[in-house]
Amino acid sequence: MAASFPLLWTSGKAERAVVRLDGRVVAEFPLAAPRRFAVTGPLGDTLIEIAPGRARVLSDPGPRQYCVQQGWLTRPNAIAICAPNHVSLSLSGRDPRHDSINY
Fold this sequence. Notes:
The protein is mainly beta. It has a single domain (2-95), classed as N-utilization substance G protein NusG, insert domain (mini-chromosome maintenance (MCM) complex, domain 2). It is 8% helix and 43% strand. It has helices spanning 5-8, 66-69; strands at 16-21, 24-30, 35-41, 44-51, 54-59, 79-82, 87-92. The chain has a 4-stranded antiparallel sheet with strand order 2-1-7-6. A 3-stranded antiparallel sheet has the order 3-4-5. Strand 3 and strand 4 (44-51) form a beta hairpin. The chain starts with a helix and ends in an 11-residue tail after the last strand.
């Protein structure tokens, strides 16, 4: 029973990066190929970087840089929120069972 516990918290492989501005999806990219994407929020540009199997907020004009400090996101439903600039980056997979708060 205890050996199966970690299986409850897995949710497959991340397949797509989803970028939102004010809660609206502004871009969605597969995690198969490298790419950079800038989204302009109220404070300026937030730069998203995608590499095979992962994504991150490369830079953001927000004062505390929490979303940049999240580093590379690799798990489905992981999220980096740049609250002052109203931008978020999340990863999606085939199985939407858990969000990043569960990790």
